[in-house]
């Protein structure tokens, strides 16, 4: 089977799984369904590492051990991981909350895409991946993440003071894609003053950005690129608490969502700050960070046609402008009858996907497993189509849904994303 255009060259993604990766994906789905149905699960631990090779005897004429030739050392027995039981209660979740978190988080993507993010983040070890998913879902529940989707921006502004002001000032915004098709998030650090707004507002804005940014990622692309523009940075702009929270989001709650980070045009004073931040970073995240000194360095990742003209060699004359909410844009969310009908359809499809996945995860026959896999892919397509219909009834509109001065929007009615560059 040929892979879709732009499929990542590395394995581990939908459409590019190895045999072993598929086995681990099956195990994780089986564990998720099991814990949802029974309230607890005891996943099979990862295989123990291979025993160390025996120490060979020294060559003839040599000396070994304390008094002569050493006998071959027997390999130490390989450690055997003890199976551990996980329960929903220890994560503060019910079966219904687990189901809701799973599918609220899947959006219109292939459900495997979400699960694979956690598997890759935990090096394909099923138990840590399952634990990570459940902790992420617990965090989403405890922090009421859904309100950044169900509340309009004016409502969020009332609940979190100066929420809209952050969007209006252009402190951070998303525009265009890099050479790999990943959305670009620009962060203008000089505009940030930690004391100008409540910390809870900044946290909520970060979650809003993460959740909104997900709508702009089109499969097979799964990540975003961050450009931290340090032009004009001073120590008064530094906010260690926010840096910690952003790192935590990418490492624990939205794993495998980060492509690259470009820290651009950082002044000398930043290097003292960097010495504090660097130890907080997971090595995987740290490896994705690159310091760029010249505007032209950005062209290695971003095509000139897509790079803002405020940077040297950038050709896109786009200037960020916050598109304000439009009266009545969320009226469909008040249509309770249609909303209930569409939610019922989605529940039927999600249950069908889980039922088919349960069979697929247990099937050891290559032929029937492949057939069940095809059925899952077909249901995943139906889920995407149905989610596009449901979304306006359950999710408030963002500025990416609104039309600009030319009458165009970034997110189209069919769920696709169209970026327009002003070259």
From TrEMBL:
PROSITE patterns: CRAL_TRIO. Residues 44-56 have a biased composition (Pro residues). SUPFAM superfamilies: CRAL/TRIO domain, CRAL/TRIO N-terminal domain. Residues 40-63, 355-374 are annotated as: Disordered. InterPro entries: CRAL-TRIO_dom (IPR001251), CRAL-TRIO_dom_sf (IPR036865), CRAL/TRIO_N_dom (IPR011074), CRAL/TRIO_N_dom_sf (IPR036273), PITP/CRAL-TRIO (IPR052432). Coiled coil: none annotated. Residues 160-320 form the CRAL-TRIO domain. This is CRAL-TRIO domain-containing protein.
């Amino acid at each position: 089977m040929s892979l879709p255009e732009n499929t990542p060259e590395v394995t581990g993604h939908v459409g590019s799984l190895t045999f072993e990766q598929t086995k681990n994906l099956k195990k994780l789905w089986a564990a998720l369904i099991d814990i949802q149905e029974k309230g607890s699960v005891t996943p099979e631990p990862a295989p123990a590492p291979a025993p160390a090779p025996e120490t060979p005897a020294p060559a003839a004429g040599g000396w070994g051990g304390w008094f002569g030739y050493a006998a071959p050392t027997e390999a130490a027995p390989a450690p055997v991981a003890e199976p551990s039981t996980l329960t929903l209660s220890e994560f503060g979740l019910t079966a219904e909350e687990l189901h809701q978190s799973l599918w609220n988080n899947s959006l219109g993507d292939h459900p495997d895409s979400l699960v694979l993010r956690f598997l890759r983040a935990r090096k394909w070890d099923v138990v840590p991946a399952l634990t990570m998913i459940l902790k992420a879902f617990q965090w989403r529940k405890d922090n009421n993440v859904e309100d950044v989707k169900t509340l309009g921006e004016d409502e969020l502004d009332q609940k979190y003071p100066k929420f809209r002001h952050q969007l209006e000032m252009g402190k951070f915004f998303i525009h265009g894609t890099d050479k790999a098709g990943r959305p670009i998030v620009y962060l203008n650090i000089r505009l940030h003053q930690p004391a100008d707004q409540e910390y809870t507002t900044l946290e909520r804005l970060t979650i809003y950005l993460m959740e909104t940014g997900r709508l702009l990622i089109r499969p097979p692309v799964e990540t975003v690129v961050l450009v931290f523009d340090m032009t004009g940075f001073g120590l008064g702009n530094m906010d260690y608490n926010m840096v910690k929270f952003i790192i935590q989001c990418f490492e624990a709650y939205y794993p495998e969502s980060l492509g690259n980070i470009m820290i651009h045009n950082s002044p000398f004073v930043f290097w003292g700050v960097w010495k504090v931040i660097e130890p907080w970073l997971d090595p995987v995240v740290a490896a994705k960070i690159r310091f760029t000194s010249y505007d032209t360095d950005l062209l290695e990742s971003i095509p000139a046609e897509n790079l803002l003209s405020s940077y040297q060699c950038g050709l896109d004359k786009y200037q960020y402008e916050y598109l304000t909410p439009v009266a009545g844009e969320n009226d469909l969310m008040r249509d309770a009858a249609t909303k209930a009908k569409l939610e019922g359809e989605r529940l039927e499809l999600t249950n069908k996907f889980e039922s088919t996945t349960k069979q697929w995860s247990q099937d050891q026959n290559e032929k029937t497993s492949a057939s069940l896999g095809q059925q899952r892919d077909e249901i995943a397509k139906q889920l995407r189509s149905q989610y596009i219909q449901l979304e306006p009834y359950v999710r408030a509109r963002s500025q990416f849904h609104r039309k600009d001065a030319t009458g165009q929007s970034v997110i189209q009615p069919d769920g696709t994303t169209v970026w327009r560059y002003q070259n």
